[in-house]
C-alpha cells in the first residue's frame, strides 16, 4: 500500500493513506464490524470502474459503455447466489443501511410499523432509531434481550408483536453474540402477518460459511453489508425470493440510490469469489473459535460477558460488575493507546449513555484474517484485562504496547 500515484501528485492525501495502512498493520483491529480485505479486493475497489455510471441493471442500463460494469455485477450476483443460496440478489446497495432502506421502501409505506431490537440491546440505527430515517418515517417499537440471560427474549418479542401489530419485524443485530433462531422469529412474523427482514450485516461471512444458521429462505428479506465477516468490497446487499425481486430492484434503483458504485461492486465480486474457496470455511470457523477463546479468557479475568459467552465473531463485555468506575469510552481510549482498537458499546440495561457507555465490544474477524489462533487471541485477552485493571498506568500501557507491536510483527498484514 505505497500509493505511488497519489504520492506523486498529492503528498498530503498520500501521507494519510500510507498512515492508515501503517495504523492497520501496527495495531490490533478488534472493532467487530471491521476486517482486512485482501489486496485483490482493495485493488478492485481502486479500479477504473470508479469512473463509470451504470444506473440500471446488467443488460438494462441507462448509459452506454457498461459491458465491463455488467460483467462485474453479474459475477458478484452469481457468486452471492452461490454463497448464500438466495433466489434473487441485489449487490448495488452502497451500505447495509441503504439495503435496509430499500427493503422498507419496497414493502412499507411511511407510517407503517416496524418492530426491531432496541439499539442498546444490540440493534442498529437503521432498524428504527429516532435519529435515523427509519425512526422518522415509520412507527417503531422494540423487543429486547432477557436482562438476566442476555439472550433474545423470543417470548417478549411475540408479546410485543401481538400488541403492536407490526408491518415488518427486523431481526439481525450489531452487538448480539449468540446464534439467532430465525425460524422462531419468522413464526412470530407470520402470526401477525408482518414481513420478516433479517439483517445479517455482522454475520454475512459466518452464514456463508455455514457456521451460523442462515435466514435465507426463512425470512422474506435478508440484508447485510459485504465488508465485515464476509471480507469483500465495501457496501451492502439484499437477498429475497423471486416474488420480491422487482420491488427490491426498483427500490434500490431508482428508489433510494442513483448510480451504483461499480468499483465497490467489483470488490464485492472479488471478495465473494474468495469466500467460495473452501479455505473461507476454515477462516470462519477460526473466527468463532477465536471469539470463544477471547470471551473465555476475559471471563477468567473476572469480566462479565453479556449472555455469558459467544457463538459468533464478537463478545460484548459489561464493565459495570468488574470495573464500575471505568466507562466503555475510557476503556476504549486506554486500549487504543496500547494499539488494541475496539469500541465502547452500550449494554442491555444501559445506565450511562451511548456516548460513554458501560461496555466494550470486541470482534475477532480481522485478527483471524492476519492469522491469529486461539492461543494468540487468549494472549490478547490477557493484554486487554491488564489495561482495564490499570487504565492510567503508564508502565502497563508501555508493556502492553510493546507486546502488541510484537504480535503485529508476528502476524503481518499487507506486506
Ligand atoms: N457501524 C457498524 C457496527 O459497528 O456495527 C454497523 O453499521
Q: What overall form do the CA principal axes indicate?
A: globular
The count of strands amounts to: 15
CATH 2nd-level architecture of the largest domain: 3-Layer(aba) Sandwich
Strand composition percent: 5-15%
Mean pLDDT: 97
Structural domains: how many: 2
Contiguous low-pLDDT stretches (5 residues minimum) are: none
**Total helical elements:** 17
Structural class: alpha/beta
Write the layout of secondary structure elements.
Blueprint: H1 4-9, H2 11-26, E1 28-29, H3 39-45, E2 56-57, E3 60-61, H4 67-84, E4 88-90, H5 96-107, E5 113-117, H6 133-137, E6 139-143, H7 154-164, E7 168-171, H8 182-191, E8 195-199, H9 204-208, E9 221-225, E10 236-240, H10 245-256, H11 262-275, H12 278-300, E11 304-305, E12 314-318, H13 319-322, H14 328-336, E13 340-341, E14 343-345, E15 359-363, H15 365-369, H16 374-389, H17 394-410
Parallel strand pairs: 1-13, 5-6, 5-7, 7-8, 8-9
Antiparallel strand pairs: 2-3, 4-10, 9-10, 11-12, 12-15, 14-15
Helix pairs in contact: 3-11, 4-11, 5-10, 7-8, 12-16, 16-17
The chain binds D-serine (DSN).
Residues 33, 96, 124, 174 line the site of D-serine.
Amino acid at each position: 500500500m505505497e500509493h505511488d500515484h497519489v504520492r506523486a501528485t498529492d503528498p498530503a492525501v498520500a501521507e494519510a493513506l500510507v498512515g492508515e495502512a501503517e495504523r492497520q498493520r501496527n495495531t490490533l483491529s478488534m472493532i467487530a464490524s471491521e476486517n482486512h480485505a485482501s489486496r485483490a479486493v482493495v485493488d478492485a475497489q481502486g479500479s477504473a470502474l470508479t469512473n463509470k455510471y451504470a444506473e440500471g441493471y446488467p443488460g438494462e442500463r441507462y448509459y452506454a459503455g457498461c459491458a465491463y460494469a455488467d460483467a462485474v455485477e453479474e459475477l458478484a450476483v452469481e457468486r452471492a447466489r452461490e454463497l448464500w443460496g438466495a433466489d434473487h440478489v441485489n449487490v448495488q446497495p452502497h451500505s447495509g443501511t441503504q439495503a435496509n432502506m430499500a427493503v422498507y421502501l419496497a414493502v412499507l409505506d411511511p407510517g407503517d410499523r416496524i418492530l426491531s431490537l432496541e439499539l442498546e440491546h444490540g440493534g442498529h440505527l437503521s432498524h428504527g432509531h429516532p435519529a435515523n430515517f427509519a425512526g422518522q418515517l415509520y412507527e417503531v417499537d422494540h423487543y429486547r434481550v432477557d436482562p438476566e440471560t442476555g439472550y433474545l427474549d423470543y417470548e417478549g418479542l411475540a408479546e410485543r408483536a401481538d400488541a403492536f401489530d407490526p408491518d415488518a419485524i427486523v431481526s439481525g443485530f450489531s452487538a448480539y453474540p449468540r446464534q439467532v433462531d430465525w425460524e422462531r422469529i419468522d413464526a412470530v412474523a407470520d402470526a401477525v402477518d408482518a414481513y420478516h427482514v433479517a439483517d445479517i450485516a455482522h454475520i454475512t461471512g459466518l452464514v456463508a460459511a455455514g457456521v451460523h444458521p442462515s435466514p435465507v429462505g426463512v425470512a422474506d428479506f435478508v440484508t447485510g453489508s459485504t465488508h465485515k465477516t464476509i471480507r469483500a468490497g465495501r457496501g451492502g446487499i439484499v437477498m429475497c425470493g423471486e416474488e420480491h425481486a422487482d420491488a427490491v430492484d426498483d427500490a434500490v434503483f431508482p428508489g433510494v440510490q442513483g448510480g451504483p458504485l461499480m468499483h465497490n461492486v467489483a470488490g464485492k465480486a472479488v471478495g465473494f469469489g474468495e469466500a467460495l474457496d473452501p479455505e473461507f470455511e476454515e477462516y470462519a470457523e477460526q473466527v468463532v473459535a477465536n471469539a470463544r477463546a477471547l470471551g473465555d479468557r476475559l471471563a477468567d479475568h473476572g469480566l462479565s460477558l453479556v449472555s455469558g459467552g459467544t457463538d459468533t465473531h464478537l463478545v460484548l463485555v459489561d464493565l459495570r460488575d468488574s470495573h464500575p468506575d471505568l466507562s466503555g469510552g475510557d476503556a476504549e481510549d486506554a486500549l487504543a493507546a496500547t494499539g488494541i482498537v475496539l469500541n465502547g458499546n452500550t449494554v442491555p440495561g444501559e445506565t450511562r449513555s451511548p456516548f460513554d457507555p458501560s461496555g466494550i465490544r470486541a470482534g475477532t474477524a480481522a485478527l483471524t484474517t492476519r492469522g491469529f489462533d486461539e492461543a494468540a487471541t487468549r494472549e490478547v485477552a490477557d493484554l486487554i484485562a491488564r489495561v482495564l485493571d490499570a487504565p492510567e498506568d503508564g508502565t502497563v500501557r508501555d508493556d502492553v504496547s510493546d507486546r502488541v507491536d510484537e504480535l503485529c510483527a508476528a502476524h503481518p498484514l499487507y506486506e
